[in-house]
Design goal:
single chain; 2 domains; alpha/beta; seven-stranded parallel β-sheet; NAD(P)-bd_dom_sf; UDP-glucose 4-epimerase; about 40% helix; Rossmann fold; UDP-galactose 4-epimerase, domain 1; binds galactose-uridine-5'-diphosphate; binds nicotinamide-adenine-dinucleotide
Length: about 325
């Protein structure tokens, strides 16, 4: 298929772009390089432009005659969304509205959308299924939920078919060493721990040790970025075969605590890390684990890298290589 990937120069979008190209698709990336990198497109054509630039978006869609769009472009830092909510509604919600309007103008009828487990807020039941209440607790999650609603409302008119993927905690890097997370000032646990292992930080803080979890630290469902990328390839196959619109959790269905993650980083690094226990970080649910049965049955998705040590090893290998990449 002829595909447009917004945000395809970012962490997740670049892994998906690579898999799409390998699967034989004709991929164009649309990215303003705000938090993405030209090298991350690995040679796929890049339109360096902002989603808010309607003229560039229209010109790109007119020239490309795309059969589907994958929409990753967004701001993603939860604490920043609390401090500057309108930045998140502008980029994540308003620019998604603009993209949907442009898709209508150009007759593009298929969309794969990057959503997040943050739409669930603090779920009452673990594992969390797609039918759980949608109660985001920060503007980032709310901005994504509003996009989900626009997409599903539009789909209900018959104008669009979509697969909305709600990612849990995405981590790891391309095992081939070509791609990985390169964002400066990262906040994600595995990324921060790998930076520490590589001597780029002095210590790591554990945010809260008194949660109602087995070891008192938060539990998350970490999914390797390559398995997540594969879900996008399958989502496109589903839409191309005339499949109905779907909303799917992307996780493995089991979680690890912060301490278990840090132990895995220490194993892979071969040395102890400097760890400091601190207070809870506001807005962190105790446990967030996906019920992943729907994506397995609807798309036939089967994880290849459901292994915390493998996730950490690829992230650490990538972190070691980063000076040349950044
Ligand atoms: N990283 C995670 O753990 C995670 C979890 C859940 C959901 N997601 C979602 O996955 C998607 C990708 O996240 P990521 O981790 O790869 O982040 P990222 O910051 O690495 O990638 C986002 C990309 O979008 C581009 N972009 C942002 N705004 C743009 C705009 N207005 N116009 C053009 N390009 C723009 C950036 O330059 C960047 O390349 C996001 O939609 C995010 O909400 C990520
Ligand atoms: O230095 C750190 C960083 C994180 N943590 C803890 O590690 C866990 C995971 O934190 P991350 O920041 O790696 O990830 P989140 O679970 O906060 O966020 C993830 O899930 C969110 C949805 O809930 C968003 O989608 C977000 O983009 C995605 O990374 C949390 O308990 C957090 O408190 C630490 O203890 N120390």
């Amino acid at each position: 298929m002829r595909l447009l990937v917004t945000g395809g120069a970012g962490y997740i979008g670049s892994h998906v772009t690579r898999q799409l190209v390998e699967a034989g698709h004709d991929v164009t990336v649309y990215d303003n390089l705000g938090s993405g990198f030209r090298w991350a497109t690995l040679g796929a054509p890049l339109v360096e432009a902002d989603l808010a630039d309607t003229a560039r978006l229209d010109a790109t869609l007119a020239a490309g005659r795309f059969e589907a769009v994958l929409h990753f472009a967004a701001h993603i830092v939860v604490p920043e969304s609390v401090a500057d909510p309108l930045k998140y509604y502008a980029n994540n919600t308003r620019n998604t509205l603009g993209l949907l309007q442009a898709l209508l103008r150009h007759g593009v009828r298929r969309l794969v959308f990057s959503s997040t487990a943050a739409v669930y807020g603090t779920p009452e039941h673990i594992p969390v299924s797609e039918s759980a209440p949608l109660l985001p607790i920060n503007p980032y999650g709310a901005s994504k939920l509003m996009s989900e609603r626009m997409i599903s409302d539009l789909a209900a008119t018959g104008a669009l078919d979509h697969v909305t993927l709600r990612y849990f905690n995405v981590a790891g890097a391309d095992p081939g060493g070509r791609l990985g997370q390169a964002t400066p000032a990262a906040t994600h646990l595995i990324k921060v721990a790998c930076e520490l292992a590589c001597g780029k930080r002095e210590r790591i803080d554990v945010f809260g040790t008194d949660y109602p979890t087995p070891d008192g630290t938060c539990v998350r469902d970490y999914i390797h970025v390559e398995d997540l990328a594969r879900a996008h390839v399958l989502a496109l196959d589903h839409l191309a075969a005339g499949g109905q619109s779907l909303t799917l959790n992307c996780g493995y269905g089991h979680g690890y605590s912060v301490r278990e993650v840090l132990a895995a980083v220490e194993r892979q690094h071969g040395q102890a890390l400097t760890v400091r226990d601190t207070d809870r970080r506001p807005g962190d649910p105790a446990a967030l684990v996906a019920d992943s049965s729907r994506i397995r049955s609807a798309l036939g998705w089967q994880p290849q890298h459901d292994d915390l040590d493998f996730i950490v090893r690829t992230a650490l290998d990538w972190e070691r290589s980063l000076p040349r990449a950044g």
